[in-house]
Amino acid sequence: MQNRLEQNSHVARYLVRMSAKCGRLKDARQVFDNLSKSDILSWTSMIRIFSEHGDIEEAFKLFHRMVGELESDVHMGSALVHMYVKCGSVDAARN
After folding, report:
1. Where are the PPR repeats (predicted)?
2. Range(s) of the domain holding residue 25
3. Number of independent structural domains in the chain
């Protein structure tokens, strides 16, 4: 099944989102971590999931890992703004 997930990132992102909606963050993270190559949508989905579930520290860890692996773009900035706003740092989000 893992090989099929690697071939279809849309299905993998869906499994990540559904696992998170069911409160199974560990399962969502496992699917994400097992992708051979995460795209910007996969990264921002995981960052958003952790920030929405109140695990800001893990969201920041993922963000910094993402920055090291991907080039900066609009989606990444959007995820960071969302994360700052979610943790009540509106001023930081504006910067």
Report:
1. 39-69
2. 2-94
3. 1
